[in-house]
Amino acid sequence: MAGRKLPNNLKLGVATSAYQIEGAWNSDDKTPSIWDVMCHQPNNIEDNTTGDDACKSYYFYKRDIDMLKFLGVDFYRFSINWTRLFPNGFTNITSSAGLDYYNNLINELLANNIEPVVTMYHWDLPQKLQDLGGWANPLIAYWFEDYARGLYKLFGDRVKTWITINEPHQIAVFGCGMDMLAPRINCHGIGEYLAAKNILMAHARAWHIYDEEFRKSQNGVCGIVIASDFAQGATNNIKDVEASVDAVEFHIGLYSHPIFSSDGDFPERVKRRVAAKSLEQGYPRSRLPEFTNDEIEYLKGTSDFFGFNHYTTYFYTRANYESSIIPSFYDDIGAKIVEMNFEKGVTFQCTIVPKGIRRALNWVKDTCNNPNIMIFENGFDSYGGLNDLNRVSYYRQYFDDILDAIEIDGCNITRYTAWSLMDNFEWASGSRLKFGLFQVDYDDENRKRSPRCSAIWYKQLISTRTLNLNYVPLLEDICF
Ligand code: NOJ
User: Fold this and answer.
1) Cα(67)–Cα(77) distance, integer angstroms
2) Which of 30, 106, 258, 286 is the most buried (most CB within 10 A)?
3) Does residue 479 lie in a domain region?
4) Domain range for residue 177?
């Protein structure tokens, strides 16, 4: 069967994050994170589940590695649970149990020829640091620097690809501006922008430390991962097109512009809109904090790659925000999403718009100085079942467009990562929403993991290094 050959330099992997899979929320000397706290309060999670046990990967990580071997991946992206390693949030105390766990995981991956790609921060801030203001406190940049240095020292001899922070937009808007993610600050119109600035400064400190103190001896790379779901006008009307440009700048540009553009700083369009709205609303200054000139310079160029997460494209029309929640991020954009007639998974977040990933990749190429793009998440949700041919179809179509972006448009893409290795705790949606290539049986105390059709499809893509649009995967009778 003919197919499209994958470029030789494109590495293929899968991803998870600590809170979503590890469980063992209070084992040994681990202290609570903001997600432990959020999940232990009633009614915060749609199906009232928690990540207390999740996939129990803290105990079953060797089985996770067997699944990675089954797939044949080049790398595994996972994250460090901050309070498992450093129980009081600062680095003066290291947990020996936490250290053993991550050493074992990393060593076992390397022994099996699977490269560890490590996310330092995938949303699980130590509650102690939250009590001190969390992402709203500018000092967090220094706390994060210390944390990052701790990680480079402990694992940098073996970990060569570091991700500082996963999806700043989600942390800032959903966690600080709203109450959808921990820590549920809900200080809309203000909290998200304070967090945005402090997250960027924290990231930059972690990158500079790597660059100055570790790069020479450890010889790896360090960068940020930005949620890059894309936006398009709901019509070709100039107003809608402008609205979609604003949406992209508020969602992606807010984080990419300070780091990847030649001028640095937050994007002009965002600065202008938030300043005008703030004035109109009687604030004495813009709700979007400013960077000093030194900070602008300090941030520029602080990512060795563009970490790119992508699920869908949203369609925008220019419209006033229909809510009394003002000031807010969405009111500042001044646009609303229009539902279009595309096939989707369970949620809006997984509407199938394959061309959108190609557009998003080209936007990154054109506005971020043609960076090395590492796709660190791409995936499709469902309510379960092994026979997930709609997920296969999503992956197949998106992959086809990624290859167009590489071959026709010249995007420099060096990694592709499927989200996720297995079903896991999907934040406020709980355990009901599934993204796994492997199904996890939560009723089984051993959390049996079974490959879905999508796992078989991905395994075939990896082993043949060819995208075959006609290949139909058949379930295999195997479990882990
Ligand atoms: C983005 C996040 O990084 C990840 O934790 C989450 O599970 C997926 N998207 C799916 O929503």
Assistant:
1) 14
2) 258
3) no
4) 4-467
Instruction: For ligand 1, say whether the CB of 166 is within 6 Å of any of its atoms.
Output: yes
Task: Determine, yes or no, domain membership for 480.
Answer: no
Please calculate the CA angle 335-168-123 and round it to the nearest 5 degrees.
125
Q: Is the CB of 167 under 6 A from ligand 1?
A: yes
Nearest CA to ligand 1 atom 6: 426
Pocket perturbation via mutation, ligand 1, pick of 376, 435, 437, 440 by most ligand atoms within 8 A of CB: 435
Which residues, 6 or more positions from 35, have their beta carbon under 8 angstroms from its beta carbon?
A: 19, 51, 123, 124, 182
Which of 344, 427, 432 most suits a substitution to test ligand 1, by most atoms within 8 Å of the C-beta?
427
DSSP 8-class letter at 300: T
Atom 11 in ligand 1: which residue has the minimum CA distance? 426
Ligand 1, closest atom to CA 426? 7
417 lines ligand 1 (CB under 6 A): no
- Amino acid identity of residue 19, one-letter, is Y
**Residue numbers annotated as active site:** 167, 377
- Between CA 158 and CA 453 the distance in angstroms is 33
Is the pTM value of this prediction over 0.85?
yes
Domain count of the chain?
1
* CATH code for position 222: 3.20.20.80
Query: pLDDT tens for residues 21-80?
Result: 999 999 999 999 999 999 999 999 999 999 999 999 999 999 999 999 999 999 999 999
Q: Peptide bond preceding 327: is omega within 30 degrees of 0, i.e. cis?
A: yes
Q: How far is CA 406 from CA 84, 229, 357, 361, in A?
A: 39, 18, 12, 9
In whole numbers, what is the pLDDT of the chain averaged over residues?
98
Measure the CA–CA gap between 213 and 202, rounded to whole angstroms: 16
Q: Where are the beta strands (DSSP E) in 367-437?
A: 373-377, 413-419
Whether 218 and 160 have beta carbons less than 8 Å apart is answered as: yes
Give residue 424 CA to ligand 1 midpoint distance, Å.
10
How far is ligand 1, taken at its centre, from the CA of residue 166, in Å?
9
- Please give the number of the atom of ligand 1 that sits closest to the Cα of 424: 7
User: 461 lies in a domain?
Assistant: yes
On the question of pLDDT at 348 being above 70, the answer is yes
Residues 6+ apart with CB under 8 A from 188: 177, 178, 325, 327, 328, 329
Ligand 1 pocket member 426 (CB < 6 A): yes
Both tokens of residue 209?
A: 């430390």
Asked if residue 459 is part of any domain, the answer here is yes
